[in-house]
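#struct-help
A.M.: can someone run this one for me? Single chain, 485 residues.
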Amino acid sequence: MPASAFGETMKDRKSFLTVLSNAGWLTGTRLIGDLASLFLFVILARHFGPTGIGQYAYGLAIAGFVYALVLFGLEEYGIRECSRLSAEERRVFIGRLVGTQLGTMALVSLLLLGFLYIRVPSASTALIVILLAGHQAMQALARTLFVPAFSQQSMSGPAIAELVSRVIVICAAIILVLGAHTSLAISLIPFPIGGFLIVILAAASAKRHNGALNVTVNWRESFMIFRSVWPFSASEIVDQMYSRAGLILLTLILGEQSAGIFASSLKFLEVGIVPIFFLGIAVYPTLSRLFAHSDQSGLLQTADSYYRASLFAGGLLALGLYFVVPLLVVPLFGEEFAASESIVKSIAVLGPLIAMNMATMRLLVATHLQVRMLKIQFWGLVILVVLSSALVPIIGVLGVVVGLIGSEITIVFLYLKTLQGRMPIANLVKTVMLFAAVLLAAFFVGEAFTRFSHSLWLPVVASMAVFGALIVGTGYLRIPNISRN
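D.P.: on it. Structure tokens below:
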């Protein structure tokens, strides 16, 4: 397939603009929220040091598992199913999803209390976990309530609602730390309050897009939903385990200070992948409909352009992590986090790998290959744990980074092999090869300027300029002619 613009492969101009609008709203609001979150992270780092950040990151890790268990894959499953249901069918369907999720939330709450009792952490750590877990549980409920809006590709309202609640929570926490000089645990009390706020806003969104919400709790119906949704749920849980495994291993093997160093390095990557993630969310309903309607040509064209856009964002992220972020770590977090500079550079490799991971995963789910995807995710988790456990005692925090790189390469390779059973992947492979050549050229230019120039920012400008010039010059991406009928 010739190099083409993302918009040119959509079925029409309206479809292209809808995807771009949704991706823009989701990405823009999320990035604003993540910048606010990063500001809170900086405040906490400066006030509580690596040990405090280690506690905070550990609490977020446990809360992430709670989020995955409560969400239980209902959002992914719900968007795919609602995108092809009538209005009345959607109303009944959403009521069943929410009823099922409320029962799941009660069960997960009991499991969390049991974990805290067995683990017996300090009182402050336990309170941190409970506050963050409560926030994440309500976020998960809100995500399900937003499904009607997402399935109808009306994503600006949910995006704004999540941003408002998130910024309010973060501002309240910052005021407690800076103004009242509270402990870390007390400063996080606004989080569950913000979670309650987003649930109220999400319920209003569900009513607006789907009519009056009629929540039904029926064990037989819940069992049927669980039977259909378990691959999505298991995938979400494994993904949470995957994203938090390194942090937990570092906490157990090297202690909370090393975990804090790793968490501060990883924070920039987590913020940077937001546009890639939401691009996938925006195009997901289109991919699902194209596959459901057996439109192979439209699916292939959209998949290739989606892949190109995702890798482009991953390349920008990699260059930013390698050349820009190391210059900001100490000014932001303080001298105690100087060790993060080298870790961030090594994490840069994960930018394009995660972009490929996310893009291929979205294609697998849209083409109903979620069970095979889950198996691959599980083996990726095993590889990560084994490599990290073996390397952390030898090379420290860098051992987790090496484990992540090895597992990501394995996952992407197996994803593409699996996708080949549903659609030809030759164009995707060519896209990856062209992108790799462009990114390596930009990296080598930036590295050359680093070695032979005394300017700190000249390598940044040089690498970005070469990357942009080659992206346009090779025809990798083109600006779409959206005015064409």
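A.M.: thanks! Confidence is low (pLDDT under 50) at residues 1-12, 479-485.
D.P.: also worth noting: Residues 7-473 form one domain.
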